[in-house]
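User: Can you recover a sequence for this backbone? Please restate the input before giving your answer.

Assistant: Of course. Working from this structure:
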């Protein structure tokens, strides 16, 4: 009898445990619904019908939709790599691996020179602090002692001032320095420019430049990238670099490393000084890593405006993928657009072609305080890497196009890596409206086409969609409560999304940090 009683009690306890487990599991699922981390609510967002029609005609899948701007891992042309090998064999670089790495770190860590106003302000702050800390009464001292104290205070002021500012100096290359630059930066420069030119060619297939201008031509990376994209359509390459040695090395690369040969690309001209803007215009103007070489902000703005006046179609500006590089690109972009509106000259009218789908301020910077970078993958020189590794290069850039923006609404740009979670995708896009949005998509709610389109989209690509029904963040909760009964089935696929996943989507790029104030 006692055994049967124990058996009944045991069964009741097990039933109670099973009930409580199911009950609390339902509560946790219900609570998870309120943690839906989307910052906008997608209503009728669909793949652009024009893009769908193009893919159907060309019989391509979503893997290569029209918004894909990324390149496969870039490798130098075989002819160029053989030329580099021939030159390095003739003029070897002592301790090459160590010097290349140190030089690359130095270039990436460069800052623009400090402005005179900011320098005076810092000096004044340091001087006030030194005067506050000083407790010595100078009125009771003789003149000689006062002079010594003042001299010591000035020496301490200059010492502290030098410790707080970046020691900028312009880059100047002799023959050995040009060789080191070629080995250190040729692959990166070529890959970045090739990606910029490839996007112009893909989005504007009717554009066939005949004349190209390159300021700060270096070892000729722009020539090789332009020749790779447009081949023999370009009949004039006007290259300007203040270093004669680096221009000589660029010419030697076009001669396959043999001084007796002719350059295999015709129409290349090397100069040391800028041509006049009134008489010379070019279909496409390029300036890579030259903004950091200007003495002050006014020189940078004057140089950028001169380049814009020389442009007939496209202006390409590239800088380091660092906070100073992004600031200089943002400064040049704003100055060109502002000058066009201030002067009212139709010849200066233009708009941002890439990466921004708008002409307003960068929303990633204004909303999150994070600079907006791009990246490209490349294979380093074989002499620097024994294994066939893939390396990423981050950079800041802007492509400006002459004329007013023709399309009323373009495609948004993906500004972070797309996070593929269980049955849903996190995607951060910069929209034509100038706003930054975080989208969460599922196959059931958004459809198979849109889900696959976003799934095969990467950082830097355009998203060929039409955003509609975007609800502001402040009305998100009320909109979700009104449609909770209608969308319960569609939201069931993403109700397991946790706060940790949303945080990972917000900071999926751990190297990006807010800009210092």
């Amino acid at each position: 009898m006692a055994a049967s009683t124990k058996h009944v009690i045991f069964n009741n306890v097990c039933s109670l445990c099973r009930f409580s487990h199911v009950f609390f599991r339902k509560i946790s699922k219900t609570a998870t619904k309120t943690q839906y981390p989307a910052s906008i609510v997608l209503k009728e967002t669909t793949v652009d019908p024009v893009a769908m029609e193009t893919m159907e005609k060309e019989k391509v899948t979503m893997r290569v939709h029209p918004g894909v701007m990324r390149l496969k891992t870039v490798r130098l042309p075989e002819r160029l790599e053989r030329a580099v090998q021939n030159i390095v064999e003739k003029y070897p670089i002592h301790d090459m691996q160590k010097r290349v790495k140190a030089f690359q770190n130095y270039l990436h860590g460069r800052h623009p020179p400090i402005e005179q106003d900011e320098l005076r302000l810092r000096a004044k702050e340091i001087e006030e602090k030194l005067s506050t800390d000083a407790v010595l009464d100078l009125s009771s001292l003789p003149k000689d002692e006062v002079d010594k104290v003042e001299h010591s205070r000035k020496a301490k002021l200059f010492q502290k001032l030098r410790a707080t500012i970046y020691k900028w100096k312009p880059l100047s290359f002799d023959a050995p320095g040009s060789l080191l630059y070629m080995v250190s930066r040729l692959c990166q420069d070529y890959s970045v420019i090739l990606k910029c030119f490839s996007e112009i060619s893909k989005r504007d297939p009717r554009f066939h430049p005949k004349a190209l201008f390159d300021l700060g031509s270096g070892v000729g990376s722009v020539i090789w990238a332009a020749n790779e994209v447009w081949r023999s359509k370009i009949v004039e390459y006007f290259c300007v670099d203040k270093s004669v040695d680096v221009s000589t090395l660029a010419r030697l690369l076009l001669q396959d490393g043999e001084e007796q040969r002719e350059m295999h690309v015709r129409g290349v001209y090397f100069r040391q000084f800028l041509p006049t803007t009134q008489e010379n215009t070019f279909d496409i103007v390029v300036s890579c890593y030259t903004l950091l070489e200007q003495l002050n902000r006014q020189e940078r703005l004057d140089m950028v405006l001169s380049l814009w006046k020389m442009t007939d179609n496209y202006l390409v500006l590239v800088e380091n993928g660092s906070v100073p590089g992004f600031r200089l690109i943002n400064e040049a972009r704003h100055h060109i657009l502002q000058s066009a509106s201030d002067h009212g000259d139709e010849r200066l009218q233009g708009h941002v072609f890439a990466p921004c789908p708008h002409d307003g301020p960068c929303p990633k910077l204004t909303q999150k305080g994070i600079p907006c970078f791009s990246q490209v993958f490349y294979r380093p020189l074989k002499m620097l890497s024994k294994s066939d590794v893939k390396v990423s290069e981050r950079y800041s850039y802007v492509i400006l196009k002459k004329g007013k923006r023709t399309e009323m609404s373009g495609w948004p740009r993906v500004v972070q890596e797309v996070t593929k979670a269980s049955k849903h995708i996190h995607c951060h896009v910069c929209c034509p409206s100038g706003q930054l949005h975080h989208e969460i998509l599922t196959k059931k709610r958004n459809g198979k086409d849109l889900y696959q389109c976003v799934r095969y989209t990467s950082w830097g690509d355009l998203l060929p969609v039409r955003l509609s029904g975007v609800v502001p963040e402040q009305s998100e909760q009320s909109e979700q409560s009104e449609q909770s009964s209608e969308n319960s089935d569609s939201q069931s696929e993403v109700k397991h999304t946790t706060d940790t996943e949303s945080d990972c989507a917000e900071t999926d790029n751990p190297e990006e940090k807010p800009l210092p104030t």
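That completes the design. The chain has a mean pLDDT of 80.
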